[in-house]
Amino acid sequence: MALRNIRKQGEEILSKRAKEIREITPRIEELAQDMLETMYDAEGVGLAGPQVGILKRIVVIDISEERNDPIIMINPVITESEGTQTGWEGCLSVPGKSGQVTRPEKVRATFIDIEGNECEIEAEGFLARAVCHELDHLDGHLYVEKVEGRLYDNSELQSEQEEEDDEPAGDGEVKA
Ligand code: NI
Question: Is 79 part of any domain?
Fold first, then answer.
């Protein structure tokens, strides 16, 4: 396993549509493991292929606090969505920033797992947000295109939070 270089906003690959994976080869398995390692190392909750320079439809997500509940999704497709939620989002490709984004409250998605099984997931709340954010990466979109209001520096939000100590603002932990 190896850490991969995380691509940053402005790099062309982040605005391209990623391609379907036709076969789960050893290289894809290695990519998935590297993506997990890279996501954990960067303290993110999700990472998509284009973010490590690979234009393929694969994402990894782990929203658990213990960092022990990884989901690897190959060729994921959102098949149903319901409701809305508005909350803070950040991205490993846009370091140090956060913004408010409205997403569906619940989504259902189909995907292939790393063993090649067809799977379906029902996600709600923060997991639904993470799924939507990562799948956007596969279509060449960053959350900053959907931010309501403006994009904040995390340092700015932390100092506001210290002063007000109310809402859990973007604290730099939500990076996907
Ligand atoms: Ni992201």
Answer: yes
Question: Domain with 81 in it: what CATH number?
Answer: 3.90.45.10
| Of 51, 39, 59, 48, nearest in space to 13 by CA | 51
Which sequence positions are flagged as catalytic?
134
Query: What distance in angstroms lies between residue 52's CA and the mean position of ligand 1's atoms?
Result: 11
CA of 45 to the centre of ligand 1 (A): 9
Closest CA to 89 of 174, 20, 1: 174
Tokens found for residue 165? 């100590």
Residue 3 counted as domain residue: no
Distance 128 CA to ligand 1 centre (A): 14
Percent of all residues in the chain with a pLDDT value above 90, rounded to a whole number? 88
Domain tally, the chain: 1
Neighbours of 133 (CB within 10 A): 26
Cα 137 to averaged position of ligand 1 atoms, centre (Å): 7
pTM of the model: 0.93
Q: Residues with beta carbon < 5 A to ion ligand 1?
A: 91, 176
* Ranges of the chain with pLDDT below 70: 164-173
Domain extent, residue 67, equals 12-175
Average pLDDT, the chain: 94
Residue pLDDT, tens place only, 86-107:
999 999 999 999 999 999 999 9
Tokens of 36: 């997990």
